[in-house]
Amino acid sequence: MKVALVNNHTAESIKLAEEFLSKIKAKGIQLDDENPNLVVTIGGDGTLLSAFHKYQHLLSTVRFVGVHTGHLGFYTDWRDYEIDDLIESLEHDRGESVSYPLLDIRIDYRDSDQSDRLIALNEAVLKKVDGTMVCEVFVKDELFETFRGDGLCVATPTGSTGISKSLGGAVIHPRTEAIQLTEMASVNNRVYRTLSSPMIIAKDEWIVVKPIEEHGLIVTVDHLTFRDKHIEKLVYRVANEKVHFARYRHMHFWNRVENAFIGIANKR
């Protein structure tokens, strides 16, 4: 096994990372930051997102496992005081994993033949900070609506518990290979109309968004932000790739949702 470690820069995470590295070295587990087959993150969901994008070129061969040093996250299964149990699991690793769907984003630019392809673990957001964003929304190749509002969010099933949920989107189980489009403060009156409801798009379909005005747009992909791009259109679909998490002790998705938003188990 070749292990890479990614941690945030809080004092607690740095201390735990040093302890983890010392203990896996003593166990003879190989550390490989360039070509790992297992990536351990110490911090929170943001740390795991950073690790995901750092190693997304290895998605077909790498698995992730997260240790959280704060509150329980959606991607972090281990607590900081369980580091010895995690290392024992690494020693007895059988290669088991659980896989989640991802979001594929293609960005085409005006007056350019080049495109960017990005992958999101959580969501991608297109928004305009100053003024109303106007864009045409297509499902596959058919015009569905002309959107006016603050922005649009397209989320994966696991990302459905983030920005999408705050916008009124559904929480989607990750075995459902789909993406979800939610609106941000859409304009709806007697003149302008949008669906004003989340849309769940099947794996064999895709969403195309064509901004009418290219200036002042911001694109975010998970924690990454892109500004001042002359965007002609964005194409969203379920990615061919998946993210794989080491299944040593992987929490059931609905238990994770309940723990994060309801907390009944903690009140018993």
Short description:
The protein is of the alpha+beta class. Helix content is 19%, strand content 40%. The protein contains six helices and 17 strands.
Radius of gyration: 20 Å
- DSSP helix fraction: 10-25%
Structural class: alpha+beta
Query: How many H/I helices?
Result: 6
Number of discrete domains: 2
CATH C-level of the largest domain: Mainly Beta
The name of the CATH superfamily of the largest domain reads Probable inorganic polyphosphate/atp-NAD kinase, domain 2
Q: Which stretches are low in confidence, meaning pLDDT under 50 for 5 or more residues running? A: none
User: Overall 3D geometry?
Assistant: elongated
Please report which band the strand proportion falls in: under 5%, 5-15%, 15-25%, 25-35%, 35-45% or over 45%.
35-45%
Terminus-to-terminus distance: 40 Å
Mean pLDDT: 93
Strand order of the largest sheet: 7-6-17-14-9-10
Instruction: Encode the helix/strand succession as letters.
Output: EHEEHEEHEEEEEEHEEEEEEHH
Secondary-structure arrangement, i.e. CATH architecture of the largest domain: Sandwich
Summarize the biggest pleated sheet. 6 strands, antiparallel
Binding site for NAD(+): 45-46, 122-123, 148, 150, 185
Protein name: NAD kinase
Active site: 45
Organism: Jeotgalibaca arthritidis
